[in-house]
Design brief:
Bound molecules: threonylcarbamoyladenylate, magnesium ion
CATH topology of the largest domain: DHBP synthase
Largest sheet: 11 strands, mixed
Strand content: 15-25%
CATH class of the largest domain: Alpha Beta
Number of strands: 15
Shape: globular
Strand order of the largest sheet: 1-8-2-3-7-4-6-5-9-10-11
CATH superfamily of the largest domain: DHBP synthase
Helix content: 25-40%
Structural class: alpha/beta
CATH architecture of the largest domain: Alpha-Beta Complex
Order of helices and strands: EHEEHEHHEEHEHEEEHEEEEHEH
Number of helices: 9
């Protein structure tokens, strides 16, 4: 236990003004987006960006996403080609991150893109996140507000559990409606590459800009477990495609589960089998089951379509061998 606690800031104009000021001062502020809570720091301040890496315990070669309030602010930090503008106009604000050539003159900390010439830009669709970005008045680097490799936070309480002693403020904006990190699309090459699946679907992107490639992290391509980065991992082991649970396992189910057997604890991602509801509940349910002290969390199969592709991507990482 620590004696340091973050300031829990209400989403009032005064609270948001205070949080914006803290960001400008170089402090870390956790805030809600529609996907997950972000651990925000001034993207133009090397010290603030370094503090993000330190708080998360994240390897420094992993670049961060820059959050801005709108396309215009995005164009100040990155170069948008026609594809990027079209995607931004269609999906922003929303859970799509674009990796684009960085504008060297924008004054972004080099640490933010880990020395790359590119930068990942996103415009979150959350009234509190939007208001905070406007109050901050500068681009905000924000990975998910959890220790590196752990389950992403979808409530202020999750943030405090994971990082409470390491950040100055948490803007308390309730539960994140999407619950999964944004789709990440790399537009720095001739052929766009999907780096991370999320709530903006591959099909929706292809409808707009034509065929895209799926990165090595493609959840639909066969791969050896060794290629999988362990990530989003609870303390308990994770066992996928479970049709029942052992007595020392917790059971994470989906859809009607009345006749499923076993489990010392059980939570249902969506009794109706709704993938959006399942995504919004995923990280919170993993955390809650983890607290049961089970040896493993057994997870029922999730349909690999729509938002299920992103859910299965996170689940496979949670189940991957730990480093
Ligand atoms: O939903 C989200 O995107 C959340 C909320 C807080 O906005 N943020 C988030 O940020 O997930 P972060 O920093 O954890 O995500 C970083 C992802 C990684 O997969 C990273 O490899 C990729 O974006 N990325 C960032 N910058 C990149 C770059 N310049 N080139 C390639 N990939 C990049
Ligand atoms: Mg994360």
């Amino acid at each position: 236990m620590t004696e340091k606690h973050p300031d829990i800031v209400p989403t009032t104009p005064q609270g948001l003004a205070r949080a914006g000021e803290a960001l400008r001062d170089g402090d870390l502020v956790a805030f809600p987006t529609e996907t997950v809570y972000g651990l925000g720091g001034d993207a133009t301040n090397d010290r603030a960006v370094a503090a993000i890496f330190a708080a998360k315990g994240r390897p420094q070669f992993n670049p961060l996403i820059i959050h801005v309030p709108d396309l215009e602010a995005g164009q100040a930090v990155a170069v948008f080609d026609d594809r990027a503008v079209e995607l931004a106009q269609q999906f922003w604000p929303g859970p799509l991150t674009l990796v684009l050539p960085r504008r060297p003159e924008a004054g972004l900390s080099l640490l933010v893109s880990a020395g790359l010439d590119s930068v990942a830009v996103r415009v979150p669709n959350h009234p509190v996140g939007q208001a905070l970005l406007k109050a901050a008045g500068r681009p905000v680097a924000a990975p998910s507000a959890n220790r590196s490799g752990a389950v992403s936070p979808t409530t202020p309480h999750h943030v405090i559990e994971s990082l409470g002693d390491r950040i100055r403020m948490v803007v308390a904006g309730g539960k994140c409606p999407v619950g999964l990190e944004s789709t990440v699309l790399d537009l720095t090459g001739a052929v766009p590459v999907l780096l991370r699946p999320g709530a903006v679907l591959r099909e929706e992107i292809e409808q707009l800009i034509g065929p895209i490639q799926i990165s090595a992290g493609d959840p639909t391509a066969p791969k050896s477990p060794g290629q999988l980065e362990s990530h989003y991992a609870p303390n308990a082991a994770v066992r996928l495609n479970a049709t029942n649970a052992e007595d020392d396992e917790a059971f994470l189910t989906f859809g009607p589960d009345r006749f499923m057997r076993g489990g010392k604890a059980r939570l249902n991602l969506s009794p109706q089998g709704d993938l959006n509801e399942a995504a919004a509940n995923l990280f919170a349910h993993l955390r809650q089951l983890d607290q049961e002290g089970a040896r493993a969390i057994a997870v029922m199969p999730i349909p690999d379509e729509g938002l299920g592709v992103a859910i299965n991507d996170r689940l496979r990482r949670a189940a991957a061998p730990r480093g």
